[in-house]
Design goal:
Number of strands: 4
Number of domains: 2
Radius of gyration: 21 Å
Number of helices: 6
Helix content: 55-70%
Strand order of the largest sheet: 1-2-3-4
Distance between the termini: 51 Å
Largest sheet: 4 strands, antiparallel
Order of helices and strands: HHHHHHEEEE
Structural class: alpha+beta
Shape: elongated
Length: about 140
């Protein structure tokens, strides 16, 4: 009975995990316009994080732990973690907005009057953006 319950948790998890590993191909085949707007790695990592949390909660239920207690503890832990890591979370969501909105792409010329940054965008990443200035020096913004 326990083995059957564990397998009922792991079979769907394995299938969804495999789908998340092939997210780039799925976005390209589904509709070409989504492949350029959404980052497949961001979507895949988000799905994988959701899978891990859901799997751990499902396994805890299978082994007899109270989910309400675990969720309450997780909620309190989430508030404490959110308050202690607010700067990191602000940077994380700022990077997420840059990836989803895509205000500029590699090769674009950008200028920021408030920061005096001007140059060609060489690389747009999740954590940082690399800009090459007039004097050919790289300027990296985190």
């Amino acid at each position: 009975m326990l083995t059957q319950s564990i397998l009922l948790v792991f079979y769907p998890v394995w299938f969804i995990w495999e789908v998340s590993l092939n997210m780039e191909g799925l976005l390209k085949t589904a509709d070409g316009r989504w492949a350029g707007r959404l980052s497949s790695s961001v979507i895949a990592r988000s799905i994988q994080l959701l899978i891990v949390v859901t799997t751990l909660l499902s396994l805890a239920r299978v082994f007899g732990y109270s989910l309400s207690t675990l969720l309450a503890f997780g909620g309190i832990g989430g508030v404490v973690l959110g308050l202690s890591a607010k700067d990191w979370l602000a940077n994380f969501f700022g990077g997420l907005m840059l990836m989803l909105d895509s205000p500029f792409a590699e090769g674009d010329w950008i200028r920021s009057p408030d920061r005096a940054i001007e140059g060609h965008v060489e690389k747009v990443g999740w954590r940082m953006t690399k800009i090459r200035t007039f004097d050919r020096r790289p300027h990296i913004r985190s």
